[in-house]
Design brief:
The protein is built from twelve helices and 30 strands. It is an alpha+beta fold.
């Protein structure tokens, strides 16, 4: 080749390259129509409008449509995109055919029509999956910086923002493969989905990772008309209430749960999910068993049986916030009983050991039953410090508010052993039995407390009362009465028996019988406890087993910090009985 020919050849190649690198506007005509038709075939979307189309040949053939509007044929999906980019395959292009190995929607805004107005993931996912299932084949679709609007009857139900997804190309019958990221309700989430489009028994996989949760599921889908999904499920969250709130659910009882990790074999049917071989970890405490979720007349229903080695029941109860804050306006706030009974629950839990605010229980069986207008929780059995504990709480919706019933107690419990775990019992020892039965009705916490009626009784034997020595006080009084005013709040008082019985009516607990007896003394108690006012108003009368001496005391003050003082006025009068007001 001559020098001149070489120069011409190189110049021609450079010119072709430069021309190929340019984007050329295409008039609306045959080429543009064929390009649009090819894009529609690979995406299933009908292009309804665009500002212009451009083509570039090098380094790879590519098409760009600007300011595009599109729709799916039955209008399940409509939207617009700042740009649609398509990369053409070279070999088909040489014979005049447009085939694309990649189609990218840049900054699209997609509207999805959903059937209902509920915040249901099933309703939201059905339209896009239906659209993709209708495609005989689908090219590789990329969504960049998109937004997806879920609308029902023209109203936006939810929005997916910052959508960056890749849908891999597939032929007819092959599963949908999707991966990428999006932001939903302010939470960025990484997702990956493998969804079967055909076949009676096909593989399915889903992973989702966000600050709210880490979810993994892998299994199979069987059946087409009534599909059943079976597989292994794993879910971890830092706070269950926040996770459920993210999905639009705010069950009141979920506030008891903090960090949670769950793994199970799952079987999922329409409106029902059964979990077997469940392993639940609650802050290091592991429970195993089975759980079932379903739909009971439009209400979420949960049932299950779980068992484990340990469980901190006090921590769960404390997070519920059952008791209102001490401010009067909180105590008079209406009880939101509908929130407590918004879902159906039948849950049974058994553990080898449990804790309730420091107290240790063993061989524990507890339950929770919730129906519309009914809430019941109970301790079927539990061992505690050589004895046993039982309890039942029942609340029913009533015309006057909430009807509350409480029954419980313990038998043959060694309070001396319990004091090591429960600081409030540090000054008391002995073997005790407690029985309590209360009923109340009200529209607020304060009304329920003010209406309480029932009975309570505590019996102790062979124990000690710390912080005061009644026997020593009597001996000091007999030797030198002037010493009675000296500091007597020290030492211990052993007793053979101690008992107190209360009759409760309208929130006031009256002492019907209360005595403590020891080797050389007898102590009698009279008075009342105001439950709404949360205070004691009582009198004590201390006397030796033999002899006329009587020492009166006044026991009064708030429930959490009462005071015990000698009744010096009565002592100076020589009173030997309780004041009349304490015996009313």
């Amino acid at each position: 080749m001559t020098r001149r020919a070489s120069i011409l050849a190189y110049g021609l190649v450079i010119a072709v390259v430069l021309l190929g690198l340019q984007s050329w506007s295409i008039a609306v005509g045959r080429v543009e129509q064929r390009v649009i038709a090819a894009i529609e075939q690979r995406t299933g979307l009908e292009v309804t409008g665009l500002e212009r189309a451009e083509i570039a040949l090098l380094p790879l053939p590519r098409i760009s449509l600007s300011k595009v509007t599109f729709r799916q044929h039955d209008d399940l999906l409509t939207g617009s995109a700042l740009r649609i980019k398509a990369r053409a395959r070279i070999l088909p292009l040489l014979i005049g055919q447009f085939r694309f190995d990649r189609i990218e929607l840049v900054v699209p805004q997609i509207d999805v029509a959903v059937a209902g107005t509920d915040d249901g993931l099933g309703d939201w996912l059905t339209p896009p999956l239906t659209y993709l299932e209708k495609l005989k084949a689908q090219g590789r679709i990329i969504i960049t910086a998109g937004s997806v609007f879920m609308r029902a009857q023209g109203a936006i139900q939810t929005i997916l923002r910052d959508v960056n997804l890749v849908l891999q190309d597939r032929d007819a019958g092959e599963p949908l493969s999707l991966s990428g990221s999006l932001t939903w309700r302010g939470v960025p989430t990484q997702i990956s989905l493998l969804w079967p489009m055909a076949g009676a028994n096909a593989r399915l996989a889903l992973t989702a990772a966000s600050p709210m949760m880490n979810l993994q599921f892998e299994g199979t889908r069987s059946g087409l008309n009534d599909p059943v999904v079976n597989g292994r499920l794993s879910l971890a969250t830092k706070a269950l209430p926040e996770l459920l709130g993210w999905f639009g659910e705010k069950p009141r009882l979920a506030s008891a749960i903090g960090p949670l990790h769950l793994s199970a074999d799952a079987q999922i049917k329409p409106h029902e999910a059964s979990l077997s071989n469940v392993a639940v970890s609650l802050e290091g405490e592991r429970l195993e068993g089975a759980i079932k979720l379903g739909d009971a007349g439009g209400r979420l229903a949960l049932s299950g049986t779980l068992a484990g080695a340990t469980l901190d029941l006090g921590r769960l109860y404390g997070r519920l916030g059952v008791l209102p804050a001490t401010a009067p306006e909180n105590e008079n706030a209406p009880l939101d009983f509908d929130a407590w009974t918004a879902h159906d629950i039948d849950l049974r839990i058994s553990v080898d050991a449990a804790k309730i605010n420091g107290a240790r229980l063993d061989d524990v069986a507890t339950y929770l039953l919730v129906k519309k207008g009914r809430f019941e929780a109970g301790l079927l059995r539990a061992g505690a410090y050589g004895g046993s504990v039982k309890g039942r709480f029942l609340a029913l919706a009533a015309p006057g508010g909430v009807d509350v019933k409480l029954q419980g107690g313990f038998d043959k419990v060694n309070l001396g052993k319990a004091a090591g775990d429960v600081p409030d019992l540090a000054k008391l020892s002995g073997t005790g039995t407690l029985q309590i039965a209360l009923d109340g009705l009200g529209a607020s916490f304060e009304e329920v407390v003010a209406s309480l009626s029932g009975k309570a009784g505590l019996n102790l034997r062979q124990g000690e009362l710390g912080g005061i020595a009644f026997g020593e006080l009597l001996r000091r009084m007999e030797r030198n009465p002037s010493l009675v005013q000296s500091d007597w709040r020290q030492g211990k008082t052993p007793f053979d028996t101690a008992a107190i019985n209360l009759s409760i009516a309208n929130g006031v607990a009256m002492v019907t019988d209360a005595q403590m007896t020891g080797p050389s003394y007898q102590l009698t108690l009279a008075g009342q406890i105001s439950l709404p006012g949360r205070n004691y108003e009582m009198g004590l009368l201390l006397s030796p087993s033999n002899g006329p001496l009587r020492l009166p005391f006044i026991f009064k003050g708030p429930l959490d910090n009462p005071t015990l003082e000698l009744d010096t006025e009565a002592l100076s009068r020589g009173a030997t009985a309780f004041p009349t007001q304490l015996l009313r």
